[in-house]
Amino acid sequence: MSAPEPPAEWIDGPADDLLLLCDHASSHVPADIDLGIDPRLLDLHIAIDIGAADVTRGLAARLGAPAILGTVSRLVLDLHREPDHPNLVPKSSDGHVIPGNLPIGTEDRLLRFHLPYHDFIAARIAAVRPALILSIHSFTPRLEQGGGDRPWEVGVLYNQDERAARIAVPWLAARGLVTGDNEPYSGKLLNATLNRHAEANGIPSIAIEIRNDLIRDPAGVARWTGVLADLAGVLRGAL
C-alpha cells in the first residue's frame, strides 16, 4: 500500500493576521491513480494553476505569512469545489476527456484528498484566526473550448463579503493593471474554499486570479509577488 498523501503543503510564518491559500498549486498525480491521459496535459491549466504556487511561496516569504497549498492535481480532485459538486472529480476539462475518471465515483477521493485538505485549513483557522485570507489562483488567457480572449491581467473574486474586494479592485486598477471585478468568472458562483473558511467565519477574503502568461517565468513571479505584497499591506491596514 502506498503512503498516504500529505493533506497540504504547509509554510509556517510568524504573521498571525494573514493566511495564504493556493488550492491548485500542484499537478501531482499519485502513483496508484491512472488518469489515462497524455502526461503533457499535466503542464496545462486544466491540471494546475500555472505560476500560482510560486507566487504564493514568494508572498509567504516576503510577508512572513503562513500558507497552505494543495498537493494534488485538480484532475485527480478539485480542492476548490464543494463535496457534492458534479466536477469534483472531473470527467473532462476544457475539451480533454479524463478516461481514468469516467468509471469512478467521488467518495474515495473525497475522503483521501478533499476532506483532509479542508480539515487542515479549518484546524489552522481554529488555532490562529487570521484577520484576512488571500487565495491565489491563475487563469488561462483563452480556453481551448469556446469563449473569447480574457483581457484582464488580474481578477478579484468574492461572494457576499465585499470588504476586501472593494479595496483591492480600485487599488489594482489605479496601478494601471487591467483588473476584473469578479472576472474572468464570478466568485458568487465559484468560491467554495473561501465560502467555507472565510465567509462562514466572518473573515474578510478575496481570491486573486492572475493571468497565467504573466507568471510563467521568475521575472513575472517576482513582479506579481511584489504587487500582491503591496496589496496585502494595504488590506491589512484597512481591514
From TrEMBL:
Pfam families according to UniProt? FGase
Report which superkingdom the organism of origin falls in. Bacteria
Q: What is this protein called?
A: N-formylglutamate amidohydrolase
